[in-house]
Write a structure and sequence with these properties.
The chain is mostly beta strands and 260 residues long. It has a single domain, classed as Neuraminidase (6 Propeller). Helix content is 7%, strand content 47%. It has a 4-stranded antiparallel β-sheet, with no helix packed on it. It starts with a helix and ends with a strand.
Length: 260
């Protein structure tokens, strides 16, 4: 299904006009969209705000000690957030209320983390930079699996900032070294030699990401790229949902639809 959507998107972008449908002003640092089309923005004060598809504010998560560095809302009923300053992971319900106690990564001897992601089985992934390994934990901080030391496997030292589970695969992105692919059990598969800064999406053979205010679609198998100019400049993050693109600048979030 995801593959089909990506193929339709590629077809829609070619020869289409970008039609702005909505926008909202604010100093936001990241944008994510869940399976229902609700929008999650982290602002400059590291507060998490949830909006509906019309960009009406629904909920705000702003506990005093909770600085949100990352949000993963792939499961709208169990939203993962990461607090880098405290090195903690927490799960929220659909109202952005904590559904469990904070999980401190220091307690499992993982002091240095940049990349965290949720798994479809309601567990979560962490890239342990000190140990140079991908690890999977349950909500009681029991380690389920580990890749082992990846420097020994790849010959590189990794400092990833993005981690995503997509279609029973896990992708860990380091803007300097590339993207590592793992299977659902955390075993290393390959390194995709592609330098990506910021957010990305992957289907079976294409990597979608931004570069210099352009949308890049990179075919991993053919080593070919398509480039599409964005309608906004200085875009710092992006997302998409059902043929709508969410483009975030330092001043606004813009929502664009594609139209022939």
């Amino acid at each position: 299904m995801i593959r089909f959507v990506f193929l339709l998107l590629i077809g829609s972008i070619i020869g289409s006009d970008w039609i702005r449908t909505k926008d909202i002003a604010g100093e936001f640092t990241s944008v994510e969209v869940d399976e229902h089309g609700d929008v999650y923005l982290v602002n400059s004060e590291k507060q998490l705000i949830k909006f509906n598809s019309r960009l009406d504010t629904l909920y705000v998560f702003n506990e005093k000690s909770a600085e949100v560095e990352l949000v993963a809302p792939q499961n709208a009923l169990k939203i993962l957030i990461f607090n880098k300053s405290l090195n903690t992971v927490q799960f929220l319900d659909k109202t952005l209320s904590p559904s469990a106690e904070e999980l401190n990564l220091d307690e499992v001897n993982i002091p240095l983390v940049e990349a965290v992601g949720i798994s479809k089985d309601n567990n979560f992934w962490v890239f342990d930079q000190y140990d140079q390994s991908l690890k999977k934990f349950d909500t009681k901080m029991n380690m389920i699996s580990t890749s082992g030391n990846l420097t020994n496997i790849t010959g590189l030292n990794w400092s990833p900032t993005k981690l995503k589970e997509i279609d029973n695969k896990v992708f860990v992105c380091d803007s300097s070294s590339g993207i590592m692919e793992f299977d659902f059990f955390g075993s290393y598969v390959q390194t995709i030699n592609l330098k990506v800064k910021g957010n990305f999406y992957i289907d079976q053979s294409n990597v979608w990401f931004l570069r210099n205010d352009s949308l890049i679609i990179h075919d991993i198998l053919l080593q070919d790229e398509s480039k599409f100019n964005l309608p906004e400049k200085n875009v710092v993050d992006f997302a998409f949902y059902k043929y709508q693109f969410y483009l975030l600048t330092q001043e606004k979030l813009y929502i664009y639809a594609l139209s022939k």
